[in-house]
Design a protein that fits this description.
It contains three helices and no strands. It has helices at about 20-30, 40-60, 70-100.
């Protein structure tokens, strides 16, 4: 059994592409916005690293079903997802605050 990365819409740009392909697909969008900051670079590295990790997991010949320590891996994934949900909530709050303006 293979685990999809949650992307059921294959037409979406940015999914199932390598980092270089994502970079090239993003060029027109970047031309229309302000210059990236160090914060943008950090956020991009995080999201691209997560995407690359999921793509690498999907490409592995042996999946989770072959793992010997399934329960431990589930707990670790829960821990990481909890952190990611906190990060997402913080980012959403900051983005909403910025969108509303001063």
């Amino acid at each position: 059994m293979r685990y999809r990365s949650g992307d059921s819409d294959q037409g979406r740009i940015g999914r199932r592409l390598s980092s270089g392909e994502r970079e090239r697909a993003d060029v027109p969008r970047r031309a229309r916005r302000t210059a990236d900051t160090r914060g943008d670079a950090c956020a991009t590295r995080l999201t691209e690293s997560l995407d690359d990790a999921v793509l690498a997991l999907d490409a592995q010949p042996a999946g989770f079903e072959d793992a010997a320590r399934k329960a431990e891996h589930v707990e670790e994934l829960r821990r990481i997802l909890g952190i990611l949900l906190d990060v997402l909530a913080d980012w959403e709050m900051l983005a909403d605050r910025e969108a509303r303006g001063p």
